[in-house]
Write a structure and sequence with these properties.
The complex is a heterodimer. Chain A is 76% helix and 0% strand. Chain A is an all-alpha fold. Chain B is mostly helical. In chain B, 83% of the residues lie in helices and 0% in strands. Chain B starts with a helix and ends with a helix. Classes of the chains: A mainly alpha, B mainly alpha. Chains A and B meet through helix 1, helix 2, helix 3 and helix 4 of A and helix 1, helix 3, helix 5 and helix 8 of B.
């Protein structure tokens, strides 16, 4: 019976979805969005805390929407999607992180307007 | 295994749309299609990842032109964000109605989702038009090229979603909630929710970070 139920849910691609799931996900997303905008617009946070605050709020909102709207999770019928997603986040982290790192170093070390050829040679 | 096989057979016998469904995908309960569509969405993630990386690299290269801080209107972006978030929720309600087999409700929620999505695109087009009119078009600086490419690609996705929504409203109306229509609606729901996820990254990385 349990197996039959799982296969029916998988067919719909929508496990554990109910009105409660969507309402909770929606309210959490609204609150997190409001907090993100408030962090920048309210002028309460010190400037150097703004970037960490909106980053953390965005990551939480992504997780909330992945779980409540896209139904990612550890249940057997969700596992395939979840594993592919985790692998993709690794690729995204590599693409974004390494691009920023490489280009930052290129900017610092090779901007011709900021460094004379002699100074560049001194680096080696 | 036996239980599952006999249940599948039962479902096939009970379904009034057998000919229609079997014609398209024999012996497929739709879960493979959904998984395949999810993998496609993950490759779409990579497109956005490269565009975000490009934007991150070029964001300070304003070439003496305006920066994000001077250009972006946060309350306006908040409005766009709200429209897209509410539309994600109303599509969720359409999915619930679909599982309940309530065709009229599905259509109602799809129409509301479409209107909200169209509102989002309308606001974005207006925003872009203002920027171009103010001399801050994609040709002004590397920062603005990256901005229009990233935000525009998301906008094109939402526009494609609107076309798909219109098609699915038509199919729901004409074919009813048969297996094929349900499978397509399930794919579209993944697509639509996914676009709201990308927008969370856009308003955080592009607009809020730009306003600091």
């Amino acid at each position: 019976m349990a197996g039959a139920r799982a296969s029916t849910h998988a067919a719909h691609g929508d496990s554990h979805s109910s009105m409660t799931t969507y309402v909770v996900g929606f309210i959490l997303s609204l609150v997190l969005t409001a907090l993100s905008f408030a962090a920048i617009m309210a002028g309460v946070l010190p400037k150097d805390m703004m970037m960490p605050a909106i980053t953390v709020l965005a990551v939480i909102q992504l997780v909330v929407q992945l779980v409540f709207f896209l139904h990612l999770g550890a249940a057997p019928e969700q596992r395939n999607n979840t594993v592919v997603f985790i692998l993709t986040t690794l690729l995204i982290a590599a693409v974004v992180g390494l691009s920023l790192w490489v280009m930052h170093n290129a900017n610092v070390n090779m901007m011709p307007t900021q460094m004379s050829p002699a100074a560049a040679q001194m680096k080696f | 295994m036996n239980v599952r096989t006999s249940l599948d057979t039962l479902a096939t016998v009970e379904s009034p749309q057998v000919g229609h469904a079997a014609h398209h995908h024999a012996h497929d309960d739709g879960s493979k299609t959904l998984f395949g569509f999810w993998v496609y969405l993950m490759t779409d993630c990579l497109i956005f990842a490269t565009l975000f990386a490009t934007f991150g690299v070029l964001v300070d290269n304003v070439a003496g032109g305006p920066s994000g801080k001077q250009l972006f209107d946060l309350p306006y972006v908040g409005g766009e964000t709200l429209l897209l978030l509410v539309s994600s929720f109303t599509f969720g309600l359409a999915s619930l109605a679909m599982h309940a087999g309530d065709r009229a409700k599905v259509l109602n929620w799809l129409v509301i989702t479409f209107v909200l999505g169209a509102g989002f695109i309308g606001m974005e087009v207006k925003e872009f038009a203002h920027l171009v009119a103010d001399g801050a078009g994609p040709d002004r600086s590397a920062f603005l090229s990256a901005y229009f490419t990233l935000v525009g690609t998301h906008g094109l996705h939402v526009t494609a979603g609107l076309v798909w929504l219109a098609v699915m409203m038509h199919q729901t109306l004409h074919f009813g909630l048969d297996d094929v229509v349900k499978r397509r609606l399930a794919c579209l729901s993944l697509f639509w929710h996914f676009l709201d996820l990308v927008w969370v990254c856009v308003f955080t990385v592009v607009y809020l970070r730009g306003a600091i």
